[in-house]
Amino acid sequence: MSLRALITNDDGVSAEGIAVLTEVALAAGLEVTVAAPHVNRSGTSAMLSALESGGRLVFEAAEVAGVKAYGVHASPAMIAFAGVRGAFGEQPDVVLSGINHGANAGQAVLHSGTVGAALTGANHGVPGFAVSLQSEPPKAWDTARHVTARALDWFLEHREELYAINVNVPDRPLAELKGLRAAGFAGFGSVQAEIGESGEDFVTMTFSQPTRELDPDSDLALLRDGWATVSVMRPPILAAPAVPSGLDA
Fold first, then answer.
1. Alpha-carbon gap, residue 184 to 105, rounded angstroms
2. For the segment 129-138, what is each residue's pLDDT rounded down to a tens digit?
3. Which of 62, 128, 216, 220 has CB 3.0 to 4.6 Å from 122, enough for a Cys bridge?
4. Is 239 among the domain residues?
5. 167: which residues sit within 8 A by CB, 6+ positions away?
6. What is this structure's pTM?
7. Is 247 among the domain residues?
8. How far apart are the C-alpha atoms of 12 and 40, rounded to whole Å?
C-alpha cells in the first residue's frame, strides 16, 4: 500500500515550488493530497488561522502538477492541523511542506509557515518534511528537485524514527552543488532586523544580511558555501524541571 502524503506550503497553491514538490512525491510513489493556502501566507509560523463561514473551513478547487488540489483559506499550519484529522481525505502518513521560495534556516525557522506546517504534523503524530530553496525568487529548480528527491527518500525510510526535518537547498546550478549535509541551526536567521526611527505611533524596522560570524557547521554557513542541509527538528517539548523549585509550594 502506498504511503499517503499531505502536501502544503506557505507561498500559495499556485506557487512553482509546490508543483515541484508534488512531482517529486509522485515520482517517489506516494499517494498525494495537495491542500495549500489560496494566497501567500508566508511568515505565519504554526498559527492556526482560517477564514471561516458558519464554522466551516473554506476552500476552492485548484490543480497542482496535474493533481486535484484544494486552495484553502487558512494558514499552512491550520491546513496540516485539519489534514491530519481527515479534512481532505484519509489521514496522511506524512506531511510535506514547500518547496518554499527562499531559505528557512537558523533560528528564523520559528517564524516560517513552511516549517510550521511540518512541525504541526509532527506535533500530532504525523512526521513532517519541510524544504526550501535559498533565493527569492528562486531559480535552480533542477537542484531543488534533485535534493528534495534524495532527502525525501531518506525521510520516508526513517520516518518512524523522526519528528520533522528541515531541508534547505542553495540556489545554484546542480553542477555546483557540493552535496547534502546534516546541520545544526545558526544562532540567528538569514536576515537581521534593526529598529530605527520611532514616533508616537510608529517604529521603523530595516532588514539586512547578518554580519556576525557563522558556525561553519550551521545550516546558514553550509548553505552559503554551496551545501544543501538537513536539520532534524522536534515539536515543542516540556523543559525539565517543569516548574522552578518553590513555585508550586
1. 9
2. 999 999 989 9
3. 128
4. no
5. 98, 129, 130, 131, 132, 147, 148, 151, 228, 229, 230, 231
6. 0.89
7. no
8. 5
